[in-house]
Design goal:
single chain, 8-stranded antiparallel sheet, mainly beta, 223 residues, 4-stranded antiparallel sheet
């Protein structure tokens, strides 16, 4: 018979940054391809005094730097219940699920006039997750999207990266509307319980912008 479809699934998070054992991760997502969480939430760190003290969010796995969320005007998300995602739109069908979140409240950036993140998860023979960020500032500011993985990544073309973890992987197509961008990665060297440290892949627009859109289209990698 036809080849069985390999699993491909995503977890999309709205919420707020005042939750129990909170991480600053409003608008974050994780993605499983095959048997592996190829794009991950790094999870908790090994508890130290800092974890429950005033410097909790110095940790790059607890603050938003270690999550698949934007870096806005060089600022991370703020903590607290006011930093919440507002659901602007939902559309769930058998073919695809669409969710649009307003993430402005998560960032203490006075110039930030709009920050909408739209997820589209498509099912079927050619599944994909599209993550589109639309941003508008009063004055030009920096904007950066991010992915987090326990695996390895390579840039295979000007607009495409591959992320592999073991025998599973995804291809990520990057569309910035022809704006120049850089891809840079950083190992998050916090004390974590996982065998490998997570890696943050930043996708940063090269120049400050007033209006921009960054779209990441993530598809399973045929191995």
């Amino acid at each position: 018979g036809p080849r069985a479809l390999r699993p491909f699934g995503a977890v999309l998070k709205g919420g707020n940054n005042g939750e129990n054992h909170n991480h600053n991760d409003v608008g974050s997502f994780s993605l499983v391809s095959g048997e592996t969480m190829v794009i991950c939430d790094p999870g908790m760190e090994v508890y130290t005094a800092r974890t429950f003290g005033p410097h909790r969010y110095d940790s790059k796995v607890l603050n938003s730097f270690g999550h698949a969320v934007p870096l806005v005007a060089d600022r991370l998300q703020q903590a607290g219940t006011a930093a919440r995602a507002a659901v602007l739109k939902t559309d769930f069908t058998e073919q695809a699920d669409t969710l649009t979140l307003d993430l402005r409240a998560a960032y203490a950036v006075p110039d930030l006039q709009r920050l909408e993140r739209t997820f589209v998860f498509r099912r079927g023979a050619t599944p994909s997750l599209t993550v589109r960020d639309e941003v508008r500032f009063a004055d030009p500011q920096r904007f950066e999207s991010a992915l987090v993985t326990w695996g390895d990544w390579t840039r295979v073309s000007e607009t495409t990266i591959e992320i592999c973890d073991g025998s599973d992987g995804v291809q990520v197509k990057i569309d910035t509307g022809n704006r120049a961008f850089q891809v840079r990665s950083e190992v998050l060297t916090e004390e974590v319980a996982t065998p490998r440290h997570p890696v943050r892949i930043g996708i940063a627009l090269a120049d400050p912008v007033t209006v921009a859109a960054v779209t990441l289209t993530i598809e399973p990698l045929e191995r």
